[in-house]
Fold these 3 entries.
Entry 1:
Amino acid sequence: MFKRVAAAAAAAVILLVSVTGCSTQTLAVPEEFCERPIEKDALEPLLPQEEVAEAEQSASGSRLLCQVKVDETVVLTDDIGFETNPLPAESWVSAPRQYKNGQRRGLVIPGAAVVGDDGAVVEINCKNGSPAMYMHFNIKLLEKEGQTLSTSQGDVLNFVDDHVPAMVERLHCAAG
């Protein structure tokens, strides 16, 4: 599994999308996040309204880091890791306090999640590993200097429901 992650993400991918020649600011939303298509409606509400958005990815061992920058400032990250053990029960008890309005939420695929207005933690059990492997997604929204986050838990959950299943498929995890 780790070799597939490293092979799938061996090189950093940078997608630069910009809008030029417009008098009003319109955000150019990346069409991909973590080398997978992402719905504009899932990503756009999480980004500040600036002119340039850029998606990047890097890999190290069993970890994959994906991020979006707006005007050179990181505003969204997802640190994806593979572990042989699930998160301890006490982590799920304390996780809601780590996010603004954090709550346990259901997903469109089997798994566990805590989602808040400013991020989420998601765990997916990959049934096809021996021993079993767990994918952990640590999604964070970061404030751009001079701006405050105006996202809601629903915005973050919409992103999670679009992004997580795509990554489960990309990284060959048989969720269950």
Entry 2:
Amino acid sequence: MSREEVKDRILYGYYLEQLYATATGRIDRLFSVLTLIFGSAIELKADPFFFGVMIVIISAVQSTYQFGKQSARAAKQSFEYLRLFTNEV
């Protein structure tokens, strides 16, 4: 494997981790906003059973997949790739 191929793989890893960090961060924020909206809907005399179930489902998905932690790990890993690429050049 040549030096240019190694640099390309490092840069590819950096961009892939940045993409993953952005996607999981947005999913985490979306679920947080949906939880807030569904919680507010219960106070506005909407169907409490439906919105309560939706809050439970979203909370279960958030605690199971932990998108916020995954986003932080991916951002840290992308920083490590960038640092490796900078040292390589």
Entry 3:
Amino acid sequence: MLTPLTGPEHEGTHRLCLIAGGWHLSWHIPPAGLALSAHVPFRTESADAHPVPDAVTRAR
């Protein structure tokens, strides 16, 4: 699922979320990388509506 992030510090950035083997995985996708994710289902509602669990550590 691809959802837009909110706030001026995330302008144009989206979050790619998926669940694999029961794990919640997510990545921030900058505007320049959105074309590479064109095949991913998109939600117009903000990523704030789908929070990432606190127990997940994200690598950058």
